[in-house]
Specification:
148 residues; alpha+beta; globular
Length: 148
């Protein structure tokens, strides 16, 4: 199952890419991220790991991510496994004049029996997930444009 979101940011792709890959600072930029920390030393590269605690409704949930692909300034990909679902998230950055179009594609794949049992629930919540993704992108857009 794939869920997509996107935005456009008033800054060039190299700047937006660098901003988005400052994973340890996402709690300063995204309202739903309660805390964020790097688990491996920088610079960011495939294998880099980081943790985010995200507010989901009334509950805080911890997610650990690993960078699995990195092609500055065009794209990067992170993966995490949570509740039996492998979430693969790809960020693409394309120039549009002096601006950057950001496209986010999140793919959910079940891991084991628990994942197969949870997948139908995720399917029914996909619009809510997409709304949360779009909100996070809006937060990043505002923060990136403040520093651009």
């Amino acid at each position: 199952m794939q869920i997509e979101a996107g935005t456009e940011i008033a800054a060039p792709p190299a700047d937006v890419f660098a901003f988005f890959t400052q994973f340890g600072r996402s709690s300063e930029r995204v309202a739903s991220v309660v805390s964020s920390e790097m688990l491996t030393a920088e610079p960011v590269r495939p294998g880099t790991r980081f943790r985010e605690v995200r507010r989901q409704g009334e509950q805080d949930t911890t997610f650990e991510f690993e960078v699995t692909a990195l092609d500055p300034p065009q794209n990067f990909e992170v993966v995490n496994v949570h509740a039996g679902i492998r979430w693969q998230t790809r960020y693409d950055f394309q120039p549009r004049g002096s601006r950057t179009v950001v496209r986010l594609v999140m793919t959910a794949r079940p891991v084991g029996l628990r994942g197969w049992l949870i997948l139908p629930m995720i399917w029914t919540c996909r619009t809510k997930i997409q709304t949360a993704m779009q909100s996070d992108l809006r937060d990043m857009e505002k923060a990136a444009e403040r520093v651009a």
